[in-house]
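Hey, resending since the last one bounced:
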Amino acid sequence: MCQGILIMSKSCLKFTDVTFIYDSAGEPLFEDLSLHVDAGWMGVIGPNGAGKTTLLKLAAGLLDPAAGRVTCRGDTVYCAQRTDHVPDEFGQMLADNARDAQIIKSHLDISDDWIDRWGTLSHGQRKRAQIATALWSKPAVLAVDEPTNHLDGEGREFVAKALSLFDGIGLLVSHDRELLDSLCRRCLFIRPPEVILRPGGYTHALAAIECEQQSIENLRNVEKRALKRLQREATKRSQLAAGAQKRRSKRNLAPRDSDGREKKDRVRVSGKDATGGRLRRQLQGRLDQARSQLGELKVQKQYELGIWLPACRSKRNVLLEIESGSLGLGPERKLRYPHLTITPTDRIAITGPNGSGKSTLIRHILPLVNAPKDRVTYIPQEIDMARCQRVLEQARQLAGERLGHLMNIVSRLGSWPERMLHSEMPSPGETRKLLLALGMTRAPHLIVMDEPTNHMDLPSIECLEQALADCPSALILVSHDERFLNTLTRTRWNIAEDHDSAGGFMLVLE
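The structure tokens again:
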């Protein structure tokens, strides 16, 4: 691998007392955030809606803080999650025959004709084009949001190799643990209201935080035991003080009981009660200090993850049956498929390289499914902004038990449902959660997810995997995540090159 092709001037990125709040939010997303970032890649980790994309946009100058400042010497480039539009300088990058441009295009396997057939490119190919253009522009700061979304195994290798060439300041939001471990020298964990920076890749940095949290938990337990001992001692002292007060009291003495009054007076002048009162006050001070120390030991709250899927199995024998045929994928390119059948208990993985027609096949079979439309839950690979807004409005219109159920699902996927419902526009990951949750409330007979882990944070992926493992409905997953597919599916529809048709593909049942 060629290294150090993109030589950057020495620079740094600084956040100084940055506070940021969206107009529709009730509280700041970041408050008094100070951060110094040097050259090298920094992973940005956190649940959907925590502010990862917002942090990248602040770094790139696309958002202005409400207070504080973000400073950087040199140009900044932000690579968004979406791949709807052709990058502004993509044509110039393709036309550039300089050595650096050729290396970038080679590492990302970019073809010169992509700009002319952008509409037919897979999202994975578009993502590589987006990253290539960003690297070619040689910014001082490169903020990349989910670069491996939509990519097959080969595409991920292309992207990892290309990003490793970058010598400037890199901010990386990704759910790809291998990429975070291989590229990043440090990781920033966004856990509102905290932001925690630790050295190393994702695995190393997370282990450090977990170790710290365990140490804090152990110290809390020690402090709790000490507090209980002090509380028991304080109770004992209070009881002794109450007894002494009773002994001193003349309230129940007869008016002419001079002997009794003399005894009470001798108790008063003994000095023991004064000493006891002083010790009691000292103990109360220790008790207050112990409570204060315990309150300062903050342990990261652990939210329960996992989803209950209220799916029901269809009583029909077959959900889909279509004869063999072919689908057009563009000029002189097509996908051939054999006779296909889906039963109510099938769990199918659809695999193949980018651009081989996986999403096209899904769109072809969905209208042919033998089930009511509202009993088919489909999560597409990409959701445009207009659809995101419609999904949000649909969720806002729910009420009563169904709204509570939806909010419970979203919460167990690791997002804050109230914040999401009051946002102007949910993030792509949040939109997928909303769309999935809305479908679950209708007890689907079939769940179809195209690249289900795209835009999802790591806890959400693990939660989704656990939930789908127990789902009784039929399941179709299009994914490049082999671990995810191996856990959840039993049948594979694999798309490979069709050697009998130039530029074509063929679906093989495995």
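The first strand starts at residue 13 and ends at 20.

Sorry for the duplicate.
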